Amino acid sequence: MSGIHGNARMRVVAVVCMLLFARAAPAATPPRLVELECPKCQATHWEIDHDYRGMDGYYEPYEKRVYECPNCRHSGTGYHVLEKSPPEFFLQPHPMYPMSQADFDFWVSVLRKHFPDHPMLQKLGSGFKPNTKLPTKPGLEEAK
Ligand SMILES: [Zn+2]
Q1: 35-66 confidence digits (pLDDT tens)
Q2: Is 7 a domain residue?
Q3: Is 16 inside any structural domain?
Q4: How far is the CA of 41 from the centre of ligand 1 (A)?
């Protein structure tokens, strides 16, 4: 028997299953900058995470997620959320979810400070900029 072909077939089956699952599973919500407070030492640090990670179909509260504190190295749950970037931040420029230049600049400064190597910073001003216009309302234009 040819083990190589068997393996290849298994790999194809696995990939097809993953694609089917990815399609059936609800998509993750957009990533957000999240400021977390350590339950042990109360130091704060920032993570980029999703409200809904879209992995196994249920919502895991931030307090039940495992993070590691850069200050005391506590690795575990119980982190308290202090602040989160708006969900539309990483989606800019988004046609339906605009953002003011001031809000955008504030969150860019947080991103730059805590994630200086983040790839979105390379796209600032070109691919990554706020949609500062009001969302277009389809219906209204057509009614004229
Ligand atoms: Zn800590």
Answers
A1: 999 999 999 999 999 999 886 667 899 999 99
A2: no
A3: no
A4: 4
pLDDT in tens, 129-140: 999 998 766 555
Q: Has residue 40 been placed in a domain?
A: yes
26 preceded by a cis bond (ω within 30 of 0):
no
User: In angstroms, rounded to a whole number, what is the distance separating the alpha carbons of residues 97 and 34?
Assistant: 19
- Taking a 5 Å cut-off on Cβ, the residues next to ion ligand 1 are 38, 40-41, 43, 69, 71-72, 74
Query: How many contiguous H segments (helices) and E segments (strands) does the chain have?
Result: 3, 5
Q: Calculate how far, in angstroms, residue 73's C-alpha sits from the geometric centre of ligand 1.
A: 6
Find out whether 138 and 96 touch, Cβ atoms under 8 Å: no
Domain presence at residue 13: no
What per-residue confidence (pLDDT) applies to 144? 40
Distance 105 CA to ligand 1 centre (A): 29
What pLDDT is stored for residue 55 in this prediction?
A: 67
Ligand 1: distance of its center to the CA of 117 in Å? 23
- pTM score above 0.85: no
How far, in Å, from the CA of 48 to the mean position of ligand 1?
18
**Which range marks the domain in which residue 65 is found?**
31-123
